[in-house]
Design goal:
The structure holds two protein chains of two kinds. Chain A is mainly α. Chain A contains 15 helices and three strands. Chain A has a three-stranded antiparallel beta sheet, with helices on one face. In chain B, helix 12 crosses helix 14, helix 12 packs across helix 15 and helix 13 packs parallel to helix 19. The longest helix of chain B has 29 residues. In chain B, strands 2, 3, 4, 5, 10, 20 and 21 form a seven-stranded mixed beta sheet that branches. In chain B, strands 12-11-25-24-23 form a five-stranded antiparallel beta sheet, sandwiched between helices. A three-stranded antiparallel beta sheet of chain B has the order 1-8-9. By secondary structure, chain B is an alpha+beta fold. Classes of the chains: A mainly alpha, B alpha+beta. At the A-B interface, helix 8, helix 11, helix 12, helix 13 and helix 14 of A face helix 1 and helix 2 of B.
Chain lengths: ~375, ~625
């Protein structure tokens, strides 16, 4: 604790204000869009999100103040707890829209699959930084067996809910970490071959009919414009009709008249792009790009491997959601239920993202300290 | 296993940059896609969005009503209520279906079928679950509207035919348009805006005058939400506008038909297969046109399954067949009226000429019999008509020759279509495009050229057969009625006319139609009197074949006929007794009152055997109904 005096006297001096500021800016844009989407008939959603926002900021600041190395010890307990919660969902969960994802805790509907994403990041960071020296030519398949077990067990449980989107997100985040910690070229190619072979098999034998429908509809949204393709088409109409400068705040027709489904959750970016146009969309994408650069920079400048992996995992967690969510809203990816960080309404999603932000802030803070 | 240095990040840093670049590249892909959607295709998507929020609500134009000559309503419109179910709006599909089950009392199979249909359709696609719902069920749906969020009621105007099947063929019916018809009608009437689901006239007047009866639908642009519900107060000024184009109803059509006469003829043909046509000889106006069996046209405005339709189409009594126009029959002895006129006009005989009728006629090796095998002895033309002597007209036929008979048959309008109903399409005396009303047949008259062409008969044999309206000879019932108008109107033939007037929805006359003189024959003095004397004797004198057509106080003239179904040489009496469908068709043509003819009728009763027994009573009912009513009105 002596050394940190030289870098700064107070917490605020070392605190990564610029990263925090970018996050706050995104949250404010998100709240603004949410207000526009809900003010006509469900403004209470906006007020709830304000509370989630406040709670999220609080969590981020608290986490940032904690030395992240404590998570090295907490990683496994956190992982086990989230697995138990996932099992609890499977057993006592609340069913909605054909899948079982929520735990009713009375005051809040908890979605444990959100916490699992975070737990996987923690456990992988611990695994990679703690156990052994990195092989010179990267990790081979045999070295990765524990990693696969860590990732596939919760993935399987989430997939069974069924929640294809979150299951894929867990695997994407894990993939980013696995790549980051180097992997043998032969293993990388082997995994890619395995995925390209197993995907068609999984499509035929594992996916549920509604999930297959989504994939088919993604490939051809006009196949069933009043059915599964409806969301995708209406979303693209919303985005495209925004044109260069948008229809203006509170003036989006697609979302106000409810042509755009879930315009406060999964499709909120379309509602934003409708009102703010290409100009607004470019600004938001730019801010997310800035967030990526800052996150990667935090990882590079981390003082230890655990912090670096943790930071990469946290930024990957956020940015994968951004890519998949926006990709789905603008017809680049199939419609899977993935929220847009800082924009989509939802407490669990806000808390997961703010945990990630807190981790990044914490890693950033401590690069100056030791 | 050696622990690595936890503070050495040298291998991780380059990969962090690589991973960062990868994410930036992905964001750039999203950026490019935004550019494509919002700038490259932006205009197009803006239009989509506008279509989304403005719904063009159709205001269905009522179809023009159809009236008889005296302004009695025959075809009206009524609202039909259909119930649609849109799955996406249901909180609980099964729950709502159970609620609906209480209202509609579907059987288990129907219930499951409708539920499956709803589940199979796209979530935002409305599925019709009940059609033509009565008021009491409608009221129950309204009462439970809070529990039935996904149920919508469609209102559309459909036809209401006030007199069931009595006008089936002539008025026709309306049915839902199919893809092929839609294409044709869109080309034909581009401004009428036909769409799938529309009702169009299928046969009869409904079909022939489709372009007049159909109105022009109105439109209303309304701001709607995703459920297609009008947004009254969207909170957005820009949406709260609406424009409206009112619907224009179709024109009202007044026909020349006489409601009471039509119903009288319809009742007189009860239980029979046959047809009756009545025409006013003075104008050519068609007063009645009945073909039985018919169908209730209201059947087609509610719900008829393809299976039920097939069953009806396969019925042996062919209810879809319009026996007044679409079927032709050998005119039989009714043609003797034309023969007598031709002979008198060609002066091969005079009214006083006596021909001996021994009961058989021999030509080479073949012998033809009269229906009275004993024969009628020496008789003149009046007696020959009265008794319907075949031998007399065999002789006359041989005197006239086949081609002269052909010529006279043509003058009486046989062997060609009457083109009934085409008055609407006449413009400056020219018919723009001739339409066939209910598949009207032209009939057929043999001549020597035809005999040469077919080769399996001789001119002499056909001359004999044609002289009594048999053999290859064919005529429709409408043609036979028109034939009588020529006798009744001193040689003047008017184009048979079905359309009297067209009025707009305010009752203002748009167009009226008058008699069109088609042909005029200058008869020698005395010819028509002689023929009339003959047809009067058929009805009114002892020994006439049609005393059943007598009407008290009115001089009715007429002629019976039998239309051979199969050649008599091929069937025995036992066959006839067993198989009704082999029996001859009974025919009667009539004209009344003879001193000032106001109605010409032609009646056929299929397999009715004797014109005097089966067909003449129908004609009597019609003449009596029409003339007694006319005279009452006069007095």
């Amino acid at each position: 604790m002596e050394r940190n005096k030289s870098a700064g006297d107070k917490f605020s001096d070392n605190f990564d204000w610029s990263f925090f500021g970018v996050v706050i800016l995104l949250c404010l844009l998100g709240l603004m869009t949410l207000y526009s989407s809900t003010y006509l008939n469900q403004v209470e959603i906006f007020y709830k999100q304000l509370i989630f926002f406040a709670a999220g900021i609080f969590i981020a600041v608290v986490i940032s103040a904690i030395d992240y190395r404590i998570f090295e010890r907490l990683a496994w307990p956190f992982y086990w707890i989230s697995l138990i919660l996932l099992l609890a969902v499977a057993l006592f969960g609340k069913r909605a829209l054909g899948s079982q994802r929520w735990l009713d805790l009375g005051f809040i509907h908890l979605q444990p699959s959100e916490l699992v994403k975070f737990a996987v990041v923690l456990v992988l960071a611990r695994f990679y930084s703690h156990t052994k020296v990195t092989p010179a030519d990267g990790y081979g398949l045999k070295d990765l067996v524990p990693v696969f077990v860590i990732v596939l067990v919760p993935m399987g449980l989430i997939f069974a809910q069924p929640d294809l989107g979150t299951a894929l997100m867990v695997s994407f985040v894990a993939a980013a970490i696995i790549f980051f910690c180097q992997l043998r070229w032969s293993t990388l190619i082997g995994i890619l071959v395995f995925i390209s072979v197993s995907t068609p098999l999984a499509y035929n034998f594992v996916l549920k009919e509604y999930q297959k429908d989504r994939v088919r509809t993604f490939l051809d949204p006009q196949r069933d414009p009043l059915g599964e393709g409806y969301h995708s088409i209406q979303s693209m109409i919303a985005v495209g009709s925004g044109q260069v400068f948008g229809k203006g705040f509170l003036k989006g027709t697609q979302s106000k008249l409810e042509f755009l489904p879930k315009h406060h959750t999964d499709f909120i970016f379309s509602a934003f792009a409708e009102e703010w146009g290409f100009f607004g969309a470019a600004v938001v994408l730019g801010i997310f790009g800035l967030l990526v650069l800052m996150g990667v920079d935090i990882a590079r400048k981390a003082k230890d491997r655990f912090g670096a992996v943790l930071a990469i995992g946290a930024i990957a967690l956020i940015i994968w959601h951004v890519i998949v969510n926006i990709g789905m809203e603008i017809g680049l990816l199939p419609v899977v239920g993935v929220a847009l960080p800082f924009f989509s309404y939802g407490g669990s999603s806000m808390i997961t993202n703010m945990l990630a932000v807190g981790i990044l802030l914490s890693v950033s803070y401590r690069r100056h300290i030791f | 296993m050696r622990l690595g240095d936890p503070y050495n990040l040298s291998d991780l840093r380059p990969r962090a940059i690589f991973l960062g670049s990868f994410f930036i590249f992905m964001l750039f892909l999203l950026f490019s896609r935004m550019w494509y959607l919002q700038i490259w295709k932006g205009e197009q998507y803006r239009q989509f969005a506008d279509q989304n929020r403005f719904k063009i609500k159709r205001i269905a134009a009522p179809r023009g009503q159809i009236y008889d000559r005296n302004g009695n309503l025959i075809a009206d419109n009524r609202p039909r209520f259909d119930v649609n179910f849109t799955r996406a709006y249901a909180a609980n599909v099964t729950g709502e279906f159970e609620q609906l089950q209480k209202i509609f009392n579907w059987n288990a199979e129907d219930y499951q079928k409708k539920l499956d249909q709803v589940k199979k359709a796209g979530p935002y696609q409305p599925v019709q679950i009940a059609r033509d719902v009565p008021w009491d069920q409608l009221a129950q749906i309204e009462a439970h509207s809070l529990d039935l969020g996904s149920v919508d009621i469609d209102v559309l105007a459909v036809r209401d035919y006030l007199y069931g099947d009595s006008f089936f063929h002539v008025i026709g019916y309306t049915g839902e348009i199919n893809d092929r018809e839609l294409k044709i009608l869109k080309e034909k009437y581009p401004k009428r805006e036909y769409r799938l689901g529309d009702s169009i006239g299928v046969i009869g007047v409904e079909n022939l005058y489709e372009g007049v009866l159909r109105g022009r639908d109105g439109e209303e642009f309304i701001v709607v939400d995703v459920k297609g519900r009008p947004v009254k107060k969207s909170g957005l000024k820009l949406f709260d506008q609406s424009t409206r184009k009112n619907a224009e109803a179709g024109f009202e059509v007044y026909l020349t038909l006489d409601l009471e006469l039509q119903l009288a003829a319809y009742r007189a043909l009860e239980g029979k297969r046959g047809a009756a046509v009545a025409i006013d000889p003075k104008t050519g106006e068609v007063l009645a046109m009945v073909s039985r069996p018919g169908l209730d046209p209201n059947l087609f405005t509610t719900e008829i399954s393809p299976g039920e339709l097939k069953t009806i189409q396969d019925r042996p009594d062919k209810p879809f067949l319009d026996r007044t126009l679409a079927e032709h029959y050998p005119p039989g002895s009714t043609f003797k009226i034309v023969m007598a006129t031709a002979a008198l006009e060609s002066q091969v005989i005079t009214p006083e000429t006596i021909i001996n009728c021994p009961g058989t006629y021999r030509l080479g090796r073949r012998v033809w019999h009269d229906h009275n095998h004993a024969g009628f002895g020496p008789i003149n033309v009046v007696k020959a008509i009265q008794k319907s002597s075949n031998v007399f007209f065999f002789n006359i036929g041989m005197m006239l020759g086949l081609d002269t008979m052909y010529e006279w048959a043509s003058r009486f309008g046989l062997g060609r279509r009457t083109n009934l109903g085409n008055e609407l399409f006449i413009d400056h005396g020219r018919i723009q495009s001739l339409k066939r009303f209910n598949h009207e047949q032209s009939g057929f008259i043999p001549n020597s050229a035809w005999v040469d062409a077919v080769g399996n008969t001789t001119v002499a044999a056909e001359t004999i057969n044609a002289g009594i309206g048999q053999g290859a000879f064919l005529a429709s019932i409408t043609q036979l009625a028109r034939m009588m108008t020529l006798i009744g109107n001193e040689g003047k033939v008017f184009q048979p006319q079905l359309l009297k007037e067209i009025r707009d929805q305010t009752g203002k006359r748009v167009k009226s139609f008058h008699a069109v003189l088609e042909n005029q024959i200058q008869f020698h003095p005395g010819t028509l009197e002689t023929v009339k004397k003959g047809i009067s004797a058929v009805v009114n004198e002892a020994g006439g074949t049609a005393w059943r057509a007598r009407v008290q106080g009115i001089e009715v003239g007429g002629k019976t006929g039998t239309s051979q179904v199969v050649s008599l040489t091929k069937v025995t009496k036992e066959d006839l007794a067993k198989n009704e469908s082999l029996r001859d068709h009974a025919l009667f043509v009539g004209l009344a009152p003879l001193d000032n003819p106001q109605i010409a009728v032609a009646v056929i009763v299929e397999n009715g055997e004797s014109g005097g027994h089966a067909a003449a009573p129908v004609a009597k009912v019609m003449i009596e109904n029409y003339l007694k009513r006319e005279s009452r009105r006069g007095s």
